[in-house]
Amino acid sequence: MSNVSADLVIVANRLPVDRVEQADGTPGWRTSPGGLVTAIEPVMRANDGTWIGWPGGTDAELEPFEADGMKLVPMTMTQAEVEGHYEGFSNGTLWPLYHDLVAKPEFHREWWDSYVSVNRRFAEKAAELAAEGATVWVHDYQMQLVPQMLRELRPDLRIGFYLHIPFPPAELFQQLPWRRQLLEGLLGADLVGFQLPGGAQNFVRLVRQRVGHKTHRDLVYLPDGRTVRAAAFPISIDAAGFESMARSEPVAARAEEIRTALGNPRKVFLGIDRLDYTKGIYARLRAFSELIADGHLDVEDAVFVQVAVPSREQVEQYRILRDEIDRLVGRINGDLGRIGRPAISYLHSSYPREEMAALYRAADVMVVTPYRDGMNLVAKEYVACRFEDTGALVLSEFAGAADELRQAWLVNPYDINGMKSALLDAYRADDRETRRRMKAMRKTVTQNDVAAWADSFMQELSAIPGSHGKAVRPAKRS
Ligand code: GDG
């Protein structure tokens, strides 16, 4: 696959495949099951696209290859780059800062230098592979400088950027010593997409204040004649795919098996999250355990299944979180469980998609309580799997998904008492009430699926005019 000249290039921190060992012991690749792959795969196929990303690890140089008909170009990262760009600036600085300072971000100049050089390498690779006039779609917070770097190398390209996590208010973003460089990095794109309108508004306001460009509503007018649009494109899931998986015989059987293994309690509560401090796992388990301690729930009637998928295990704050949750679960089960009846069934592991669907099918109350979340696909996946219109969703107001899933039991995850009453209401709700809410949410999720998301982004991107033809004066800084 040499000299690729692609009409569509996807740039993301990770490739959509995982390294696996094949039956004969040689290394191979398996498509990773994430939502982004499902979303972009059809667009990739339709446009014969190429995906640039890091395959994980710090292996020697890998050649471009094809997997499942997708052209993939692996980017090597050195150990120092993994520590500086990925674990450092992306996950130690940007991630907590963009999530409302749920943890304290660290600012280190060497992390920033590494972020710049990795972004440059990704931009150079995209510039090398993109055909004349091609479209390049850059993804997420690890790659915010790529649009501008790429624009300088290849002014002929149409460049889109999509941020999967929240874009913070100016008051927080301004802490960043490199705030201006990041804003200018994003302005290399023609279209900058966010999960929610609030993120797009925060961005435009910052561009006006900090970079001094003229703006009008969702548009930024650049002195070079380009227009940049900032808009919301709430991401979604392959709703039909999840529903048909949930309806399948093996998944139905597995859901039954799960309930039996749990001792057939009256109601199963479920949480599924990457083990991340933004997800609010600790507070939700505490709220649930207090309901048992207070006598509102009984371990014979209710069990909480918490799946915590291992994540960013090299980062100190994630190790601390894991220890805290381990201790909390141990204490709750020690204090409140009975033989064969733990209050919390805790699993620190990742599972195949079918197992996820079986868990969604087995759960009566899905509990999604992040302190801040760009969207939260787990909430939408649960809804997609509830084809009988049963089941209750308890959802944080601070997840992007709360904008669309208004009929969930919405909670403020900082308010433990509020969470306790929402959990209890969801537990006690009658069939008519849960059905009414679930029906409405299912309509939303089925109508706005991930294919619609990708289509609307690509359509908007192709509709941005080349030049606004306006004489632009810088905006007054406020
Ligand atoms: C970021 C933003 C935004 C989880 N465990 C397993 C597994 N998963 C899948 C879920 C879901 C995805 O991973 C997780 O997506 P979320 O949206 O819940 O959260 P983040 O990972 O933080 O994602 C988020 C998202 O990007 C998309 O823009 O919504 O706000 O933070 O699809 O099903 N999949 C499998 N096994 C597991 O054990 N197969």
Automatic annotation (TrEMBL):
Which InterPro entries does this chain map to? Answer: Glyco_trans_20
Record-listed E.C. numbers = 2.4.1.15
Q: Which Gene3D superfamilies does the protein's record reference?
A: Glycogen Phosphorylase B
Domain of life of the native organism: Bacteria
The region annotated as signal peptide is none
A Pfam family it matches: Glyco_transf_20
For whether the record's keyword set contains Glycosyltransferase, the answer is yes
Keywords (A to Z) from UniProt: Glycosyltransferase, Transferase
Is Zinc among this UniProt entry's keywords?
Answer: no
Catalytic EC class:
transferase
Q: List GO molecular-function terms, semicolon-separated.
A: alpha,alpha-trehalose-phosphate synthase (UDP-forming) activity
User: What family does the entry list?
Assistant: Belongs to the glycosyltransferase 20 family.
This chain's protein is named: Trehalose-6-phosphate synthase
Q: Which organism is it from?
A: Nocardioides abyssi
